[in-house]
Amino acid sequence: MARSARTTDTDSPPLLAEDGALEELIGYALRRAQLKLFHQFTARLSAYNLRPAQFSALAIIAQNPGLMQADLARALAIEPPQVVPMLNKLEERALAVRVRCKPDKRSYGLFLSKAGEALLKELKGIARESDREATSALNDEQRGQLLSFLTSIYQTPEC
Amino acid sequence: MARSARTTDTDSPPLLAEDGALEELIGYALRRAQLKLFHQFTARLSAYNLRPAQFSALAIIAQNPGLMQADLARALAIEPPQVVPMLNKLEERALAVRVRCKPDKRSYGLFLSKAGEALLKELKGIARESDREATSALNDEQRGQLLSFLTSIYQTPEC
DNA sequence: TATTGTTATACTCTATAACTATA
DNA sequence: TATAGTTATAGAGTATAACAATA
Lengths: 159, 159
Known about the structure:
Two copies of one chain form a homodimer. By secondary structure, the first copy, chain A, is mainly alpha-helical.
């Protein structure tokens, strides 16, 4: 399809042709869709002065109390140096803490504070809302299928 | 599902818990999957010293010969100032040209050179290959469904 | 010698305001 | 005055090398 059936006659300005090769690429559609969800979620999080990656960090720490920074970096698919300023901000705001609690004294265990847990609970609701709003073109069955397809893709090993 | 059926017992290192709220968010899965496709495509394009956005620009110009820079910016979902260095590089490499050909002498018409058209044709093949490889966990029907879901999402107006 | 966390650095991407030349 | 393209700039995000403390 050159134009989705969803496209109505209300998109008035004379748009560019949309039947090039790009529209058949999953990578292209993935990028466009991801940008849209990311922007909408970022806008909602801005009320909390947080970025999506910080929300993910809170969720991962809550799910894995006591994990090390290197673990968090791997879970977020970022490099260890990027974790440092992020955790600094979460610690400044008393949402998370670094605790020297391991046999290995080089490392920290990461935990949420009570405030961090409370905020995370609220943010999870925001995230679900944002998710639903941005995918309002799909029904619940389609959402489930989409999630399953995407999970399969990113969990497939590279080679 | 806490762990996908695809996950084998070969993922040896003791991984973090994966049954938090993140795994149920389409936004999260979208980001992980998009990053994966983007990295793989970027790696392939690096042999041509091109970035994914430059490939998209070539495809859009080919599909809409004579379009203006502002149109290209809108089609790429970027801001006009970002188009300038991108087009400069494409023009330096003689892949695209800016032509003062409009009644409005402030604007340029954008066109591909013959070399640009030839390269684009090659790149389209690379893109399809990269797309297929990165989505090897899916069959053709699933790929079609995924593409349709994603297109619906990014074509849905914000409000 | 290797590893955890850190610092410093650099490169890309993105976004905005302000400038120029045309309209 | 408004618009197309441009310049300058600043803020994120990302990636690497190198260092200190610990193993």
